[in-house]
Design goal:
Layout (H helix, E strand, L loop, with lengths): L22 E4 L4 E4 L2 E2 H7 L2 H10 L5 H15 L4 H7 L8 H14 L9 H25 L14 H10 L5 H13 L7 H10 L5 H12 L7 H11 L6 H10 L17 H17 L3 H19 L9 H7 L1
Antiparallel strand pairs: 1-2, 2-3
């Protein structure tokens, strides 16, 4: 006798599709681990290149290994084919930056002499080139759409500081460079999120690493994934003149609308990255004299948590996007 099984279309939430040794999440306890290290320790004690090396190789680098890794990053960010920027100049100036970034990845692939080499060693080298070059593409597009020329990398600067230099044309303070560096560490990995799954699905067909990363960027651009912090910023900017934040929060929920940056598919308590970013946002706002958005974020968080508690939804807490917007 044939058994009929009805499968409800609920996506892959809660479905185990593979294992990973790269990172681990305990959503109930609010724990995120990269290769055996708590995210709080990495954010406080390492740089982004050290963390990137850890994720790629499974161990933190020695001083010599780190120096070599950083040299590879410097070389890669200084040797981007000129046709990539020539192509960018043909794009509409109002093109979405995430779309431009996704389009830039196959352009990089075309100029990679190791594209067809699918060995682990070659893929690690390609990954390093992508780590180095994607920030350059972001900065270049930011300038091109304003009618400015992309800037040459400054190899005397750190990975984070160079990005800020190529973005704004000014050498950043040590503090600002460190803030960005920490943000990169916090966002470096998050097990099988939508973008990581997209990458792995594509490369499982033996497509090259650039095809996988392009798919991941596409997933990341969605408003329920990487695009969520842009939605948080839009929310904050729209509420600058709002006098009754608690009332606004209540009306949003009563009308079935979201409080952007609140709640997570995995974490049932506060996202550990959000806890770290909240602290950074408060400190940075005080130091640069720009506390307006931070104060507004704190008000929204307080009002939202109180409203969620009244509704019995005590597991809805700020996620990584909520405070990354104000940072």
């Amino acid at each position: 006798m044939t058994e009929t099984i009805n499968v409800k279309n609920i996506g892959l939430r809660g479905v185990i599709v593979a294992d990973t040794r790269v990172s681990f999440i305990d959503g109930d306890k609010g724990i995120l681990v990269y290769r055996g290290y708590r995210i709080e320790d990495l954010a406080e004690k390492t740089t982004y290149p050290e963390t990137a090396y850890l994720l790629l190789h499974g161990a933190l680098p020695t001083s010599g290994q780190l120096a070599d890794f950083e040299q590879q990053l410097r070389e890669a960010r200084s040797t981007i084919p000129s046709y990539v920027f020539d192509s960018f100049r043909q794009f509409p100036v109002d093109a979405n930056p995430m779309d431009v970034l996704q389009a830039g990845i196959p352009l990089l692939a075309m100029g990679d002499s190791e594209l067809a080499d699918d060995s682990r060693e070659a893929n690690v080298r390609k990954a390093i080139r992508l780590i180095a070059r994607l920030p350059v593409l972001v900065a270049a597009w930011h300038r091109i759409r304003q009618g400015l020329e992309p800037l040459t990398a400054d190899n005397s600067l750190s990975h984070a500081a160079n990005f800020l230099w190529q973005l704004h044309g000014e050498k950043p303070s040590e503090k600002m460079a460190r803030v960005l560096d920490t943000c990169l560490v916090l966002h470096a990995d998050h097990t099988f999120n939508a973008s990581t799954f997209s990458c792995r699905q594509v490369v499982s067909t033996r497509a090259h690493i650039y095809a996988g990363v392009a798919a991941g960027i596409g997933a990341l651009s969605g408003s329920l994934h990487g695009g969520a912090n842009a939605q948080v910023m839009k929310m904050l900017l729209s509420l600058q003149e709002e006098k009754d934040i608690a009332g606004w929060v209540k009306r949003q929920l009563e009308n079935g609308r979201r409080i952007m940056g609140m709640g997570h598919a995995v974490y049932k308590t506060m996202d550990p990255r959000a806890r770290f970013l909240k602290k950074m946002a408060v400190q940075l706002g005080r130091e640069v004299g720009e506390e307006r958005l931070v104060d507004l974020s704190l008000q929204i968080e307080q009002a939202a948590l109180a409203e969620f508690e009244q509704r019995g939804k005590t597991k809805i807490k700020p996620n990584v996007d909520f405070y990354s917007a104000s940072v």
